[in-house]
Amino acid sequence: MKIATWNVNSVRVRWSQVGDWLAQQRPDVLCLQELKCEASQFPWEAFQKLGYSALVAGQKAYNGVALLSREPGIDEEVGLGDFADPQQRVIAATFQGIRVVSVYCPNGDSLGSDKYQYKLTWFDALQRYVQRALERYPRLVMAGDYNIAPHDQDIHDPKAWAGEVLCSPPEREKFEALLSLGLRDCFRQVKPWESEAFSWWHYRINAFKRNLGLRIDHVLASEGLIEGLQDCQIDKVPRGWERPSDHAPVMATFDL
DNA sequence: ATGGTTGATCGTCAA
């Protein structure tokens, strides 16, 4: 089973690229983030033509998450349950007995900002959500844009980035807390020592060509699934396409 | 040099 994630930065701009990538890679489930549109504007037909069903949590202009899948999902749930959030950042459903969650975690803007505080509070709600979800769904994959580079290894220039948003100690503690619930970072599980492996590059300063990036998009899997993990790859190719998303897709392959 | 890019929406906000 292949489960992938991609922050597409507007699904209305990127639907054709997503379609091309789906046709090439044929993941069983693709978690999308930053749709930047309402469900009524979602390009359902483009994915339907490729044999993919969609579950969509959209909103006007910002955020928005979805699950594309070869087989329809069941038991769809939108949001974090006990945390009322007007921003659409979480959608979950079950595929072939695997609970899959697509997450778009807050960016945080800068340390000390209101958005940074919201990010930390939001991660506390995500922590409670995952704790509950694992009780009900021990076979769980949560994939998306976490907006956190977990270790210095995940940053092109750790000294320049030290203490900045996306890698500040409080953010990293929130990420580690999620792992402490029994989730593993699939990429690090497969490639513990690989450096210079990034999933996001700024549009400015020729960041992609110079590989000035961060690894902030992650596929996390519950412990029961890890023994079946075969591979996890960041596909940099779509980031080099014309008018790309600033994020690359990440895909984990499980032998289940 | 407080610059630089992209997207939603149409004056800024968000990333």
> For the largest beta sheet, what order do the strands appear in spatially?
3-4-2-1-14-13
How helical, in percent, are the residues?
Answer: 25-40%
- Biggest beta sheet summary: 6 strands, mixed
Task: Please mark out the parts with pLDDT under 50 across 5 or more consecutive residues, or reply none.
Answer: none
Average pLDDT score: 98
Succession of helices and strands = EHEHEEEEEHEHHEHEEEHEE
Distance between the termini: 7 Å
Summarize the structure.
With 256 residues, this protein is of the alpha+beta class. It is 27% helix and 27% strand. It binds one DNA strand of 15 nucleotides through residues 9-10, 12-13, 34, 36-37, 60-62, 107, 109, 115, 147, 202-206, 243, 245-246.
SSE map:
Layout: E1 2-7, H1 11-25, E2 29-33, H2 44-48, E3 53-57, E4 65-69, E5 74-78, E6 90-95, E7 98-104, H3 114-136, E8 140-145, H4 158-161, H5 169-180, E9 183-185, H6 186-190, E10 200-201, E11 213-214, E12 217-222, H7 223-226, E13 229-234, E14 250-254
Parallel strand pairs: 1-2, 7-8
Antiparallel strand pairs: 1-14, 2-4, 3-4, 5-6, 6-7, 8-12, 9-12, 10-11, 13-14
The chain binds one DNA strand of 15 nucleotides through loops.
Tell me about this structure.
The chain contains seven helices and 14 strands. With 256 residues, the chain is of the alpha+beta class. The protein has a six-stranded mixed sheet with strand order 3-4-2-1-14-13. It has a six-stranded mixed sheet with strand order 5-6-7-8-12-9. Helix 3 packs parallel to helix 5. The chain starts with a strand and ends with a strand. The chain binds one DNA strand of 15 nucleotides through loops.
